[in-house]
Write a structure and sequence with these properties.
single chain; about 110 residues; mainly alpha
Length: about 110
């Protein structure tokens, strides 16, 4: 997941790695562990800046919402015709596309 916290409250893999590097540095106070912590933190910051510049995390969230919305429609309308299903999917995909296009005009940070 690209969220800062997962739904269960646990740390993401990058956060866990950073915390392990921090713990190692705090315990050893060595130059190597400080360099590792610096590298891990730098990588996380670079990824966050890239995500903000590209809007990729928002695109991923919009994609998930679109898929869940389609699934909810199918679940709520088990007897829907093929034409109704097609129209519902097209409507949700169109909304997804509009939301992604709006990212172009949104502030970068």
């Amino acid at each position: 997941m690209s969220e800062s916290k997962r739904s269960g409250g646990e740390m993401s893999a990058p956060q866990l790695i950073q915390q392990l590097a921090l713990l190692n540095w705090l315990q050893t106070d060595s130059v190597e562990s400080k360099a590792m912590l610096t590298a891990v933190t730098g990588a996380q910051v670079a990824k966050e800046v890239l995500d903000r510049l590209t809007g990729q995390s928002k695109v991923d969230a919009y994609r998930r919402e679109c898929i869940l919305s389609v699934a909810e429609f199918v679940k709520s309308n088990p007897r829907a015709s093929q034409a109704e299903l097609t129209a519902a999917v097209e409507e949700r995909v169109r909304l997804f596309a509009v939301r992604v296009q709006e990212l172009d005009s949104a502030p970068l940070l």
